[in-house]
């Protein structure tokens, strides 16, 4: 049902808790890395933590988009139960995959035979994977109920859930750091598992009142079929899987570049810093999905708000990247040596426009998801990943580029390609509004 005209104040009040949620999440990685770095054998434990986290993300990929799905689809009793059953089934599948993966011979096949991890790193990674067993299912469960909260204009509760996650994660990490003999990677994995499990439980509790109201809305004219859910969701799931698959391939090319060690050292620092600004765009996807169509003339207001976010995010990152403020972040805050600080500057400059591109593509996706046109999103992601790998390959093998420069340039070009691919379907949907 179309409501009164949307105001910028309403958009801001809806968006700011979600932006805060993503910004708080950006603290998680640096904190746990800092804890692990201060424990015994930090080099091996940090390596194992990074590998274990990558494995967990790969297995989690099919359920990441459930927040967007529930934001778009859960409107009444029937749609709630249908999507809930779909989510629980998917959670069972990813949990089963996790169980298969942590069977010791299966794990060794991937970690040692294929990836060729050093034995010590592989053993530490295996310990972390055992602890991360509940991670994928908890993520799917949490994101389903978060989407329901967003759909019902309760974005602050999503932020409260993130506070629960960060608090429980921090307490777990610090308690194990001071009072246990765990390896560093086990401390990090335990903190992650407990944090996301607590957030999942909190999200369900905060959504209980809304769920009760949904169960009373018995609207048979808006019924949702499992086939409809599948057709809507599988392109979104495939998008996540393809996106996460690019990391190991990119790493493979970077290792063959000039100054590979320096590149691998600074890239996580650069990308985690840029992620703070990208969170503005990542949070705007759910804003668009929830508000488009709910208000009269909402598209124009949301587009204008997104344009403002593009300008602000690029400007702030640009000011830091192009001034001595970058020295402060890399050297003083992140603890990089002066040599690596200087090495990181050019890649950061290349990434200046990435936050703006994130806003643009997430608004495009919001428009398409709200219209239930999700297949182009998958093809756009394939175009982005293909562009990234092609640019890295050409930059390193034909132009002998430094790995970090090749990678950041590839990220920008790949994202531009994805945005360009989405323009025709995006304009087609917009023309009907």
Major β-sheet profile: none
Distance between the termini: 15 Å
Number of helices: 17
**Structural class, judged by helices and strands?**
mainly alpha
Low-pLDDT residue spans:
none
Strand content: under 5%
For the record, the count of structural domains works out to 2
Rg result: 22 Å
Q: What's the overall geometry?
A: globular
Name the average pLDDT. Answer: 88
Helicity, in percent?
Answer: over 70%
Write a brief caption for the model:
The protein has 433 residues and is mostly helical. The chain contains 17 helices and no strands.
Task: Give a description of the structure.
It is a single chain. This protein is an all-alpha fold. It folds into two domains: 218 residues, no CATH class; 209 residues, no CATH class. Helices cover 82% and strands 0% of the residues. The radius of gyration is 22 Å and the shape is globular. The two termini are 15 Å apart.
Structure characteristics:
433 residues; mainly alpha; 2 domains; 0% strand
Write the layout of secondary structure elements.
Elements: H1 8-37, H2 42-60, H3 66-73, H4 77-101, H5 104-114, H6 119-131, H7 135-151, H8 155-179, H9 184-215, H10 226-255, H11 260-291, H12 298-321, H13 325-333, H14 338-350, H15 354-370, H16 375-397, H17 403-430
Helix pairs in contact: 1-8, 1-9, 1-11, 2-6, 2-7, 2-9, 3-4, 3-7, 3-11, 4-7, 6-9, 7-9, 8-9, 10-16, 10-17, 11-12, 11-14, 11-15, 11-17, 12-15, 13-14, 14-17, 15-17, 16-17
């Amino acid at each position: 049902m179309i409501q009164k005209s949307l105001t910028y104040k309403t958009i801001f009040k809806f968006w700011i808790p979600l932006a805060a949620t993503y910004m708080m999440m950006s603290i998680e990685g640096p904190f746990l890395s800092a804890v692990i770095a201060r424990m015994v054998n930090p080099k091996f434990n940090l390596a194992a933590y990074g590998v274990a986290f990558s494995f967990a993300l790969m297995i989690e990929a099919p359920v990441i988009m459930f927040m967007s799905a529930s934001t778009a689809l859960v409107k009444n009793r029937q749609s709630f139960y249908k999507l809930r059953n779909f989510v629980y089934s998917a959670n069972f599948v990813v949990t089963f995959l996790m169980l298969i993966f942590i069977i010791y011979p299966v794990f060794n096949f991937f970690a040692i035979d294929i990836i060729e991890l050093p034995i010590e790193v592989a053993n530490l990674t295996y310990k972390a994977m055992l602890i991360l067993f509940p991670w994928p299912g908890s993520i799917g469960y949490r994101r389903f109920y978060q989407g329901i909260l967003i759909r019902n204009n309760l974005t602050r509760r999503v932020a409260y859930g993130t506070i629960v996650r960060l608090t429980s994660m921090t307490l777990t990490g610090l308690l194990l750091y001071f009072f246990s003999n765990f390896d560093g990677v086990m401390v990090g994995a335990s903190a992650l598992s407990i944090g996301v499990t607590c957030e999942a439980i909190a999200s369900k509790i905060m959504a209980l009142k809304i769920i009760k109201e949904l169960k009373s809305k018995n609207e048979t004219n808006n019924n949702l079929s499992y086939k409809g859910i599948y057709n809507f969701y599988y392109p979104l799931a495939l998008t996540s899987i393809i996106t996460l698959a690019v990391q190991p391939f990119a790493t493979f090319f970077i290792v063959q570049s000039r100054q590979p060690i320096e590149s691998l050292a600074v890239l996580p620092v650069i990308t985690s810093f840029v992620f703070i600004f990208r969170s503005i765009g990542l949070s705007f996807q759910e804003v668009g999905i929830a508000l488009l169509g709910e208000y009269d003339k909402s598209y124009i207001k949301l587009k204008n708000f997104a344009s403002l976010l593009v300008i602000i995010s690029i400007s702030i990152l640009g000011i830091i990247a192009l001034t001595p403020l970058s020295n402060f972040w890399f050297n003083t805050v992140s603890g990089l040596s002066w040599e690596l600080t200087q090495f990181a500057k050019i890649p950061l400059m290349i990434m200046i426009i990435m936050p703006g591109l994130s806003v643009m593509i997430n608004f495009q996706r919001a428009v398409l998801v709200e219209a239930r046109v999700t297949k182009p999103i998958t093809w756009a992601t394939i175009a982005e990943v293909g562009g990234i790998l092609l640019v890295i390959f050409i930059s390193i093998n034909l132009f002998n580029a430094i790995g970090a420069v090749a990678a950041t340039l590839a990220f920008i070009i790949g994202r531009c390609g994805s945005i360009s691919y989405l323009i025709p379907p995006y304009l087609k949907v917009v023309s009907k509004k």
